[in-house]
Design brief:
Blueprint lengths: L2 H10 L5 E2 L3 H5 L9 H6 L5 E5 L5 H9 L4 E6 L2 H14 L4 E5 L14 E7 L15 H8 L2 E11 L2 H14 L2 E6 L12 H7 L4 H8 L5 E6 L2
Parallel strand pairs: 1-4, 2-3, 2-5, 3-4, 5-6
Antiparallel strand pairs: 6-8, 7-8
Helix pairs in contact: 1-5
Length: about 230
């Protein structure tokens, strides 16, 4: 393993705002922060927003800057990537952004009912051959339902036509409430978006910048799990 990665892995172990659960905690369903994220990590009662598959944490950090009255938690398994966002949190002394290093398959193990207000899926793996593994499949939506607050919202931002079309099919099939959608987010005016969402959509991840430069249309959908 490259020396820089090892240094970053060791560095995030010293950060109180980066949580790395053990497999024993996951398997035994004894994760100590379950139901206590607001009190123990963020130390406030503000809403908690998840970014699943956060990569370097650009969205979590960007949203944290724009909305100091909310808490943002980036989730990813790649510690070397999380380090970038976590290091920004340290440099900017942010108190409303944290990270959880784990596989998203275990996501329901970490939160109590009604603990999370919103979920952001930013450029998730489209999983073309494994539809159940898509983060907007019924399998995952049912997991989110266990900890999302009533009326909880899911946002998807992607360059993948495959994933986007699949998500729209899921929304229709399972009768989730479609709030807004766009097949070309920056090429058309997305009506009926609230001001907060418009501001958030201005944030671009590392991958989004790459995709945009290659001429890929960026898709966006916002829906509510009933």
């Amino acid at each position: 393993m490259p020396k820089k990665k090892l240094i970053r892995f060791e560095d995030i172990k010293t950060m109180d705002w980066v949580v790395e659960p053990t497999m024993e905690e996951i398997k035994n369903k004894q994760f100590p922060l379950k139901g206590k994220w607001a009190k123990e990590i963020f130390k406030n009662d503000s809403p908690i927003v998840l970014e699943l598959g956060c990569g370097k944490g650009e969205y979590a950090v960007g949203m944290g800057r724009k909305f100091p009255d909310k808490n943002f938690l980036g989730v990813d398994i790649k510690g070397a990537r999380i380090w970038y966002g976590a290091n920004t949190v340290r440099e900017e002394k942010m108190s409303n952004v944290a990270f959880l290093r784990t596989r998203i398959d275990f996501i329901e193990s970490f939160f109590a009912p009604n603990e999370i207000s919103e979920i952001w899926l930013t450029f998730s793996d489209p999983q073309p051959r494994k539809p159940r593994k898509r983060l907007t499949s019924k399998l995952f939506i049912d997991r989110y339902r266990k900890f999302l607050k009533p009326g909880g919202i899911v946002h998807l931002k992607t360059d993948s036509s495959w994933l986007f079309a699949s998500t729209l099919e899921q929304i229709d099939e399972h009768q989730y409430e479609l709030i807004s959608k766009s097949w070309d987010l920056y090429g058309e005016l997305v009506e009926n978006l609230d001001v907060d969402t418009r501001e958030i959509l201005e944030i671009k991840t590392h991958y989004e910048q790459i995709f945009s430069e290659k001429g890929h249309d960026i898709k966006y959908v916002k829906f509510r799990i009933n």
